[in-house]
Amino acid sequence: MYKTYTLELAGRTLKVDIGRVGKQANGCAFMQYGETTVLSTATASEKPREGIDFFPCSVEYEEKFYSVGKIPGGFNKREGKASENAVLTSRVIDRPMRPLFPKDYRNDVTLNNMVMSVDPTCRPELVAMLGTSIATCISDIPFAGPCAMTQIGMVDGEFIVNPGQEQWDKGDLKLTVASTAEKVIMIEAGANEIPEDKMISAIYKAHEINQTIIEFINRIVAECGKPKHDYVSCAIPEEMFEEIKKIVPPEEMETAVFTDEKQVREENIRNITARLEEAFAENEEWLAVLGEAVYQYQKKTVRKMILKDHKRPDGRELTQIRPLAAEVDIIPRVHGSAMFTRGQTQICNVTTLAPLSEAQKVDGLDVNITEKRYMHHYNFPSYSVGETKVSRGPGRREIGHGALAERALLPVLPSVDEFPYAIRTVSETFESNGSTSMASTCASCMSLMAAGVPIKKMVAGISCGLVTGETDDDFVLLTDIQGLEDFFGDMDFKVTGTTEGITAIQMDIKIHGLTRPIIEEAIARTREARMHILDDVMKPVIDEPRKHLSPYAPKIKQITIDPQKIGDVVGKQGKVINKIIEETGVKIDITDDGSVNVCGTDEAMIDKAITIITGIVTDIEAGMVFEGKVVRIMNFGAFVELAPNKDGMVHISKLSDKRVGKVEDVVNIGDQVTVKVTEVDKMGRINLTMRPSDLAGKKEEAKPET
Fold it and tell me: What percent of the chain shows pLDDT beyond 90?
């Protein structure tokens, strides 16, 4: 027998089956919201993993194509590596769950979500988030939950709770909020310049709904929850800390970490660790956890300095931003480039423009999104942090940071009609000491403008950190956190936006949630810093998009034709369009609505291709004048090609004002000539004239439709 629980949530029924499937997992919830179905499981190893100093938790979000009635593409016809959406969803689930596990827990934990059916009105990502929380809460895995998640969209200025896929994709807000019973624990947002106060209202609307969901989960746990199992604690013995302090007094540790040079600080810690290794040479048990102990000692030192003394490791004031620098055109021959430096964090961004046919094809569960016109890719090589490691391609961190910067800039990009290009920006991390994703946002914005992309407004990003004390009122916020403050602090609150409002938020925390005063002050801090970056750093370097593209960028001209005439342009088996491409060297993209984009590096060839296409789709009428090529000669006249598959005839009597004895006396095959249409007869035959007297009048030339 199994138990079923239901909750009315945003006008739809959330159904949870416990004990129906997956009974061998530590915890399993069979979730249904509307007709969206997700199987969520939580499993843990029996013993801790040895030799690690972190909690080994992995979150998986599996997109099954059968859930939307599709067979996967590719040779194998089965699901392969996780899509970007799957990776990003896994990260969003991971961030609120991880802080709620014990800090000294080292057992392997896997939280798996399998999407089995998708109802477009109930997003599977939300169902997976809730399923993960329920499966973990009812399991025997130690967990300080529950936590709940709600998504808020916005259409026409009105908030929508748990919007359907179309409302989510096309609305002005994509907000995901996770909460515990008391506090907000995770925020992820993309927004179309939402003002700060409205964003806070949306966050706490979601938080309020989360409380209802938490009561629902508590009811399930009360009836189905397993007792939490005991585990081997990996906490550092207190007596070890006391011995370390005797060898390395707190004042010495403060001196070691109090520097803005990352390499100097790391060398200081290496020297301290070496002394302690020598001192504890006879104690194998302590040696095994010495690295973690030194880490904890650093953490306590930095947190005390910040919280009690209001001293930051690099000597800055709490609201002070690291030294900033910006420049454009750092890389020659590319379509656009910029570099943004914040302290020891340095990002170089390069923009590439291409025809719309180069947009990324997306094969996922969202039927509304089949391609990406704007792509932001982020790379984090090991040399940026002074390490040696072989690159294995982008991992979850790289995908996540790239997606955040991409989300930050999407609201200000021009429409396809305004700028018919596929756009790729690549952020190369030259140096890293915290907040690379925010530097990437700033560099990308300038790079786009340098490339001539007519973005609507400038975007900048900044990160805010947090150190908390024993009570909710005892906290210190840090503007522009560096790596050490991120590692040892409680929060990384990233906010991007324009002068008008927020375009993206990503909040990571290591504690059990934030109070409203902390969130409100953090958002206010990031706005103040953002204005400074925009006005004092970025705008003096480049304050508007360039009016012209790079000479190395492809040029695209757009015309509109009658959709019914697309077949004439393409021709049988593509013969017509391929001939145009061969003759001009351009690339031609035609959409179903009749939009034609002609792309190339030679503007004269682009114009030639447009002239040919215009000739094909233009209904020929008497009085029109054309430039054409003589393609055939007969005794009675010459045939002139006005456009592919459109020939007209110039009778011998219409070749000249003077008498012509032989056609070849005036024209030969291959000659380019100017002709005027005199008649289109009932059979569709086109009669032309070349007589100067006929051409002397007003010329009515065929022009492209716009």
Answer: 72
Alpha-carbon distances of 409 from 262, 370, 449, 460, 541, rounded to whole Å: 30, 20, 12, 9, 19
The whole-model pTM stands at 0.86
Instruction: For residue 417, give the CATH number of its domain.
Output: 3.30.230.70
Alpha-carbon distance 47 to 45, whole Å?
Answer: 6
Domains: count for the chain: 5
Here the tokens at position 161 are 């709770």
Q: What does the DSSP assignment read for 76-96? A: S-S--SPPHHHHHHHHHHHHH
Count of alpha carbons within 13 Å of 68, Cβ hemisphere only?
17
Last residue of a domain, one of 617, 642, 668: 617
pLDDT in tens, 40-90: 999 999 999 988 888 999 999 999 999 999 998 878 888 888 999 999 999
Amino acid making up residue 110: T
Structure tokens at 20: 């129906």
What is the domain range of residue 35? 3-224
Domain at 699, CATH number: 2.40.50.140
Residue with tokens 């021709």: 571
Instruction: Of 542, 477, 543, 539, give the one whose Cα is nearest residue 514.
Output: 477
- Average pLDDT over the chain reads 92
Q: Is the per-residue pLDDT at 704 higher than 50? A: no
- Does some domain include residue 443? yes
534 and 412 housed in the same domain: yes
